[in-house]
Amino acid sequence: MLAGAALLTTAACGSGSAETPAGQSDKPEVVAAFYPLQWLTEQVGGSDVQVTVLTAPGVEPHDLELGIQQVTGIRNAALTVYIKGVQPAVDEAVEAETSFDAATAVTTIPMGEHAGEEEEHGHEEVSYDPHLWLDPARLATVATKLGERLAAADPEHAQGFKDRAATAASTLGTLDQEFAKGLSTCKSKALVTAHEAFSYLADRYRLKQVGITLDPDTEPSPTRISEVAKVAKAEGVTTIFTETLVSPKVAEVLASEVGAKTAVLDPLESKPSGDYLSAMRDNLKTLQTALGCTA
Ligand SMILES: [Zn+2]
Q1: φ, ψ for residue 129 (rounded to 5)?
Q2: Measured in angstroms, how far is the CA atom of residue 63 from the centroid of ligand 1?
Q3: How far, in Å, from the CA of 33 to the mean position of ligand 1?
Q4: What is the pLDDT of residues 169-202, one digit of tens each?
Q5: Measured between alpha carbons, how far is 54 from 219 in angstroms, rounded to an integer?
Q6: CA of 269 to the centre of ligand 1 (A)
Q7: In this structure, what DSSP letter does residue 129 have?
Q8: How confident is the model at residue 211 (pLDDT cuts 50, 70, 90)?
Q9: How far apart are CA 129 and CA 171, in angstroms?
Q10: Which of the two residues, 228 and 244, has the higher pLDDT score?
Q11: Which of 91-100, 202-211, 240-249 is least confident?
């Protein structure tokens, strides 16, 4: 083991500058907490930064625990991009001067309440709903602020950061227009979900989210399920939304009680098969079908 480690060290020193271990570049390292922030940071940072992500693909981000290496990564990074309230471990590890909390860039929505029913997973620290990346318009604002923040951290490349931030903001603006148009004429406005992650999307496009639970890991009570069933029936809901990474069981129980189908919406808490834009467009199609939209 020791001999191997020594060899690796020698090889690393031989291949480049002594200060730059093998596999690392001299670009500023930016840590993104989970997928949508990774996507955005890559758009805005471009080839001027090296982006790493804390939450592995396929992992539900809220309960993330950080290893020593990841904490060290955060300490050494030029910037850590996160949203306070999503991951308590990350909230604890970041330092104010070297972090960017995307929630400070936008108007947040207060946390939904279910009459004090269950503990909210990983959201105890903040009073707002942290799922703000599901509104493309708010994410566009985050892109602009992130560009400014990266420019301040690395003034030599400021223009590149600002240009790419402007491009990302405009791409997200286009997506926002597609949603606004696509959801403008629908039979139903009720968005019944298992995990209440879509408040920002509902807010932006005037849908009414009826969530069963804020916590995808907790079984909702039968009382809560029948409450939601009552609302769903009254609203003439035909589809109950489930999501990737969360067991569809709760939504299926509810759907059978209401006589509705289920369909999958992606809350983008983890890397989709495409990227942020394609997954959001898939969400739009799913919503248009489920809500009977004609645009
Ligand atoms: Zn969530």
Answers
A1: -75, 125
A2: 10
A3: 13
A4: 999 999 999 999 999 999 999 999 877 889 999 9
A5: 27
A6: 7
A7: E
A8: confident
A9: 24
A10: 228
A11: 240-249
CA distances from 140 to 105, 158, 173, 252, 264 (A): 10, 18, 7, 34, 25
| The two structure tokens encoding residue 122 | 């990983």
CA–centroid distance, residue 131 to ligand 1 (Å)? 6
The one-letter amino acid code at 242 reads: T
Query: What are 70-91's pLDDT values in tens digits?
Result: 999 999 999 999 999 999 999 9
Expressed in angstroms and rounded, the spacing between residue 244 Cα and the centre of ligand 1 is 11
Question: And the tokens for 201?
Answer: 């999307």
220, 151 Cβ separation under 8 angstroms: no
Q: Which residue(s) pair with 261 in the sheet?
A: 239
Q: Please give the model's pTM, rounded to 2 decimal places.
A: 0.85
Helix, strand or coil, per DSSP, at residue 287: helix
CA of 215 to the centre of ligand 1 (A): 7
Residue 7 C-alpha to ligand 1 middle, in angstroms?
Answer: 44
Output the CA–CA distances (angstroms, integers) from residue 232 to 29, 208, 251, in the order listed: 47, 11, 12
Find the 294 Cα to ligand 1 centroid distance in Å.
Answer: 30
- Ligand 1 centroid to residue 138 C-alpha, Å: 17
